[in-house]
Amino acid sequence: PPLPPAPPAPSPSPPAQRKPVDYTATPTYESPGAPISSAADPDAEIAHKRNAVRDAMLHSWKGYADHAWGFDELMPVSKQGKNWLYQGATIIDSMSTLKVMGLDAEYNQAVDWVKKFDFGSTGRVSFFETTIRDLGGMLSAYDMSADAELLAKAKDLGDRLLKAFGSSPLKIPTPQVRTHPAVSLVGAGSDKCAGW
After folding, report:
1. Neighbour-count burial of 91, counting CB atoms closer than 10 A to its CB (0-12 exposed, 13-18 middle, 19+ buried)
2. How far apart, in whole angstroms, are the C-alpha atoms of residue 130 and residue 140?
3. DSSP-derived pairing of the beta strands 189-190 and 176-178
4. How many CA atoms lie within 13 A of 131 on its CB side?
5. Which among 56, 76, 125, 195 has the fewest CB atoms less than 10 Å away?
6. Is 101 exposed, middle or buried (0-12, 13-18, 19+ CB in 10 A)?
7. What is the average pLDDT across 65-92?
8. Does the pLDDT value for residue 93 go beyond 80?
9. What is the Cα–Cα distance from 187 to 23, expressed in whole angstroms?
10. Residue 46 half-sphere exposure, CB side, CA atoms within 13 Å?
C-alpha cells in the first residue's frame, strides 16, 4: 500500500530581532576591574579547586618573575629566560589571567612593565604571535580594567602591525613585520616564517 502523505512542515518562525551593537561606544562596567575570583562560592570543593588553580598560577608567575622577567618565557629546568618575540610575551599574555584571578599586585606589576615597553625596539616580529599574544593581551586587560593607557598601547602596536598588509601584493599579512617606526610600509613585511 502507498505511504500516507507527510504532514506539512511547520512554517519557520521569524528570526528574533537583535539589537545592533555599537562597537564605537566606550564600554561600561558595573564595577570596573572587579575580579571574577572575588565572588563568594558556597561550594567548598569548588572553592578549594579554584584556590589550587590560583596557587598554581602564583607559583608559575613567581618562577617567571624571579628567573625570566622581561623574556618571552621561562625555561623551568634551567631557570633561564628565553626570547623568540623579544616582547615579554608572558607578561602581556598573562595580564587578563592575573586580573580574573584577583592577583592585583602581580597584575599591576605586569601593567607597569607593559606601559613602559617600546614595541618599536623589537625589530622583526611574528605578525600572528604578536597579534594574538600582545595585541590580544592588552585588549583583554583593557576590557577588564578600562585602563586607557593599555588601550593606547594596543593602538600603538596595532598601527605598527598594519605594516604587514602594506608590502603584500595579495593584501594578506606577511608572516613577519618590522615594528620600528622608521620602517615604512614598503619593505616592512617579510615572507619568511619565524624560525622557532
Report:
1. buried
2. 14
3. antiparallel
4. 13
5. 195
6. buried
7. 95
8. yes
9. 33
10. 6
Looking up cell 593599555, which residue turns up? 150
Residue 178: the pLDDT is: 85
- Higher pLDDT pick, 194 / 5: 5
Cell of 90: 608572558
Q: Which of the four pLDDT bands, split at 50, 70 and 90, describes residue 46?
A: confident
C-alpha cell, 5: 502523505
Name residue 41's beta-bridge partners: none
Q: Which stretches of the chain are assigned E, i.e. beta strand? A: 73-75, 80-82, 124-126, 176-178, 189-190
Please state, in angstroms and rounded to a whole number, the distance separating the CA atoms of residues 132 and 135. 6
d(CA 105, CA 20): 38
Give the whole-angstrom CA distance, residue 161 versus residue 178: 8
The tens digit of pLDDT for each residue in 108-126 reads 999 999 999 999 888 888 9
Say if residue 136's pLDDT is above 90.
yes
CA distance 25 to 125: 31
| 149 DSSP assignment | H
Is the CA virtual torsion 62, 68, 70, 72 positive or negative?
negative
Residue with cell 596557587: 55
